[in-house]
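Many introductory courses stop at the sequence. We go one step further.
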Amino acid sequence: MIILKTPKEIERQQGACRIVAEVLSTISEAVRPGATTKELDLLAERLTKEKGAKPAFKGVKASGPYKPFPSVLCTSINDEVIHGIPSDRALKDGDIVSIDFGVLYDGYYGDAAITVPVGRISEKARKLLRITEEALDKAIEKAVVGNRLSDISHAVQQYIESNGFSAVRDFVGHGIGRSLHEEPQVPNYGSAGRGVRLKEGMVLAIEPMINEGVCDVKVLDDGWTAVTADGKLSAHFEHCVAITKNEPIVLTKR
């Protein structure tokens, strides 16, 4: 069931999303060669607590026999697509790191992701980051009343494939509100003009996960970390977007 939010509810959810945006901005500034992803995670946990919010990801149950997610951030480096677990691994010059972060605040969830360059990165990596972020912008443009859900998906696929990249198919975006994951699912591929009609009050977490090479991924033995099947780079950007009668509102933008 798709849960529509009133303008008042969207305003409350924007409070959670604003915290996400502020914390991600601070975390991105702390990314540098030599920093560990565990250090970034501890910083995010402290900032979350200071803002009176609760981490959205820590303790989320895994499917199968795996342990709940242990951290505040998902930190995915280079060929890691999503759900990377922070550790003592130090970032190196030339790496890219996806930072996915969410909170629960005032009864509502916020969720967003950015991919950050570490020091000086290759032109190929820089293009991947740029195209993925631009694909998110193009998807958001389609998040208007009367469009179909797959218009968002198609916008991502068309743009990234025209630039030589591929969209991950095993993981998708989602509705978000009082639960972290609500209906509908929001894929990053598909033909236009399909799926449910977009309505005022929908709030969607739109999140292109884009690979340099093939779209296929595999999950590591920790049960969480997804990596590209061919070992090539992956990038991830995400915003929470409210569909209103006038235009889409990006709730997780500072």
